[in-house]
Amino acid sequence: MIIFKKCRWKNFLSTGNSFTEVDLNQSTNTLIIGQNGAGKSTILDALTFGLFGKPFRKINKPQLLNSINNSNCVVEIEFSIGKKEYKIIRGIKPNVFEIYCNNVLVNQDAKAKDYQEHLEKFILKWNLKAFTQIVVLGSASFVPFMQLTPADRRTIIEDLLDIQIFSSMNNIVKNKISAIKDSQKDYEYQIKLINEKIQLQKQNLEEHRKNFESEIQKKKEEGIKNQEFVEKTTHDIELIQKHIEQLQNSISDEKNIHSKSTKIVTLQSKLSDNIKKLNKEIDFFEKNNDCPTCHQIITHDTKTNHITTKKDKIQEIDVASEKLSDELNKLHSRLVQIQKIQKHINEHNSEVVKLNTQIFSVNKYNLKLIEEIKSLEQNTFFTENDNEKLKTLNDELKNAETNGNELSVQKQYHEFAATLLKDTGIKTKIIKQYLPIMNKLINKYLTAMDFFVNFNLNENFEETIKSRHRDVFSYASFSEGEKMRIDLALLFTWRQIAKLKNSTNTNLLILDEVFDSSLDGVGTEEFMKLLNTLDNNTNVFVISHKGDQLFDKFRSVIRFEKKNNFSQVVK
Asked: Which one of 370, 385, 400 terminates a domain?
């Protein structure tokens, strides 16, 4: 229960720079009187401005500032809820909005709008409309419950029954459904994207496989060609070697020829030496007549005989030397022929070496190809890596699909919860439970004010009003006095329901000029009886300028007067 204790204000509307203070829980009923413009209704504007940042009457916020002092407009309200003592300070020039709980300032990190929302939702648990229906009944800018739209009526009853939480829950559920839908779209996009990645990865795997197979096949074909080259080259070498063998056979006499040549040359050298010796001897016989050894005379015949004999030998040697030269020339011609053949053999041998080198290189390269083919056939790095990527993508797809399915289930639960939280769901069932109590209380208060009709509200808060003769009326059908009785009956009913719920229950009740407009003398007497039935925890303030007629009916009176253009309380 909210116990309002004090309300004070200064430089507010027609109030000056000194605080005007009203004790809100001092007396069970208080009459506030004063002439028109004296400032007696200022308490309503101060309360609604302090609590909700808006005046009760149709006044622009800048106009709340006293036009003479034009600064330091402040409203302070003190109240308690359970063991917590609250104080709200709100001002203009400078702008002030502070909430204290047990003398500790409530965190002001949030924006002013959020700070106000915290005050209404978590402390007061009222908004301005609910406050004006449960705490205030005014004739100035007050809009009676029956003149509100069905939506506004419902909002007030939901606040009254403390079931607005279902609306908040419904908004939360709607936001969650919207978030789930967004998440579902994200997962649908992820699933689509992952599927595309999986297809690309499969294509990549297939391309890798084809590339491996193509590379292996290419190397195998290259190896086959190389083997064919080796075989062909080997065959060519065999043919060359056979040819070399034939050539070598054709020069098998080379050694013998060389030996003969050497012998002939040696023999020729000896013959040449013999000729020189013979010529020397001939020269001796021709030049000498005595023997140098024995000193005997050499006869002419002896000379002639020796010279003839030696010349004959020289001639024989020349003939033999010519034959040897002829034989040597033949041998030389054969050697030249052998050299040509040997050169040919050497050329073939060089070709064989060259071909063998090629065979060696090709065989070596083939061994390398075999190792590469084996490595390609055994190498699973790329395929394993790609398979791991594919497995990861499949896991991601599975997780995305699982999360998507979970979101679908959550969405179904939230949609079911949203159905329950709609106006036609749980709230309507709760309201239907309270409607008989509400209607009973309304009719009870109408009867207490001598207004005998049967008044009923349905779950859409549309009224059905029947007279004793069962004639059906609407709220608009009645006179202003009768409408006022209905408004009062609704006000007391909402307060009683609030007391039952203990949600928006409060000690404060303010009636603005109720006795001045629509209630006649009898209605006033009946209404005063009704006020007197209220418990001692209710503090009623009645604002009126019929002070003389009502003065003796209230336990305390507050009189407002205007002095020097400033409103003040006259003790």
From this structure: 385
Q: Are residues 257 and 378 in the same domain?
A: yes
Q: Residue 285: is its pLDDT beyond 70? A: yes
What's the start-to-end Cα distance of the chain, in Å? 31
Residue that finishes a domain, picked among 356, 385, 414: 385
Looking only at the bridges linking them, the beta strands covering 29-33 and 539-544 are: parallel
Report the distance separating Cα 189 and Cα 524, nearest Å. 71
Flag whether 517 is in a domain: yes
**pLDDT (0 to 100) of residue 555:** 86
Cα atoms in the Cβ-side hemisphere of radius 13 Å centred on 57: 16
Number of structural domains found in the chain: 2
Q: Poorest-confidence range of 37-41, 81-85, 503-507?
A: 503-507
Asked if residue 394 belongs to a domain, the reply is: no
The answer to whether 236 touches 358, Cβ cutoff 8 Å, is no
Report yes or no on 84 lying in a domain: yes
φ, ψ of residue 88 to 5 degrees: the values are -115, 130
Percent of the chain topping pLDDT 90: 29
**How many Cα atoms occupy the beta-carbon half-sphere of 339 within 13 Å?**
7
- The whole-angstrom separation of Cα 417 and Cα 174 is 10
Q: Domain span at residue 518?
A: 2-162+423-570
Written as six digits, the tokens of 129 are 């409309």
pLDDT in tens, 493-533: 877 787 776 556 788 988 887 665 555 566 667 667 777 77
Element (H, E) at 192: helix 164-250
Report the CATH number at residue 154. Answer: 3.40.50.300
42: buried, middle or exposed (CB in 10 Å: 19+, 13-18, 0-12)? buried
- With respect to residue 401, please indicate whether it lies within any of the assigned structural domains: no
- 363 and 442 in a common domain: no
Q: Per residue in 205-227, is it b (16+ CB within 10 Å) or e — as a string? A: beeeeeeeeeebeebeeebeebe
Contact 342, 251 (CB under 8 A): yes
